[in-house]
Amino acid sequence: KHEILAFGDYLNDYELLQAAGTAYAMENAHPDIKAIAHHIAPSNTEAGVVTVLRDLLGM
């Protein structure tokens, strides 16, 4: 579990984010997804996943 990093924005991602050791909700995510996430990433339209991954990898 601690090795899993997941991103989600809607209710279909709920179980994935719960199973992840580190869960990111997108800024434009459903409120229930934001409530369970460990972190908030920039929105989908702002390349949020890429932004977070670059930060984590030091790029």
UniProtKB/TrEMBL annotation:
Pfam families for the chain: Hydrolase_3 (PF08282)
Q: Which residues cross the membrane?
A: none
A cellular component term, taken from the record's GO annotations: cytosol
Which InterPro entries does the UniProt entry name for this protein?
Answer: HAD-like_sf (IPR036412), HAD_sf (IPR023214)
* Keywords associated with the record: Hydrolase
* One GO molecular-function entry: magnesium ion binding
> Source organism's superkingdom?
Bacteria
What is the protein's given name? HAD hydrolase family protein
Q: What organism is recorded for this protein?
A: Corynebacterium marinum
